[in-house]
Amino acid sequence: MGTTEILGYIGALIVGLVLGLIGGGGSILTVPLLVYLLGYNPVIATAYSLFVVGTSSMVGTYQKHKKGLVDFKTGLAFSFPSFLAVYLTRRYLVQSIPDTLFSFGDFSLTKNMGIMIFFAIIMIIASYSMIKKDKPQELLATKQSYYKTFIQGLTIGTVTGLIGAGGGFLYVPALVIWAKIPMKKAVGTSLIIVTINSLIGFIGDVQTIDIEWTFLLAFTVISIVGIVIGVFLSKFISGKKLKTSFGYFVLIMAVYIIYKELK
């Protein structure tokens, strides 16, 4: 086992620790780790990220369920338009993106560059949601019409399908505002959606790319070990302070990715 592979597995452990400590952010670390450290192209990296995040979120769902913080009915109902969009995005849209998006003089924006830059933009949005101070949630007087939720679910699913992310940072506020679920239960409920979306999205990839199952399963198992450790450590660490610190780290990583891709 080479040094790079060992560092990759250490990274997998850190991914799990982050998921266990703050309940999100797995894909934010997984994709750059696979691309910049282990040398995978972004399409494969985002596919692997879907599997890792989906499997890890399944473990997280079980842990939240034991604490009574999962609304299965709402989570399953909300997941339908999302997983439909994720599957179609991974199965057809990602594969149909041209290798060169556009050229301007000597500069060409390639498919791989475009995916990573888009990923960095989503990271910036995620970092803002982590850094900002939480405010009391104002719930709508009535639930939103389902057709609007369906359209928004399709939109979020398409975004998460493109970047290979679970999308928890998008689904949590959606559940709070649209489904009127309390914040703690929204976090647990979002894990159902993330699990279904990620794994179904990955199924779309299995049909189009070759998967290194030995590496992927080992990476995932180590991440799950990290989650178990992270959940244990979360009892002793301030989640709010950790979330803010991680938000700044994500922001720095996003700027680095944009610099790396455009230099």
UniProtKB/TrEMBL annotation:
The chain crosses the membrane at residues 7-37, 43-62, 74-93, 113-131, 151-174, 186-206, 213-233, 245-262. Pfam families: TauE. It is found in: Cell membrane; Membrane. It is a multi-pass membrane protein. Keywords: Cell membrane, Membrane, Transmembrane, Transmembrane helix. GO terms for cellular component: plasma membrane. Its main location: membrane. InterPro entries: TM_pro_TauE-like (IPR002781), TSUP/Inactive_protease-like (IPR051598). Belongs to the 4-toluene sulfonate uptake permease (TSUP) (TC 2.A.102) family. This is Probable membrane transporter protein.
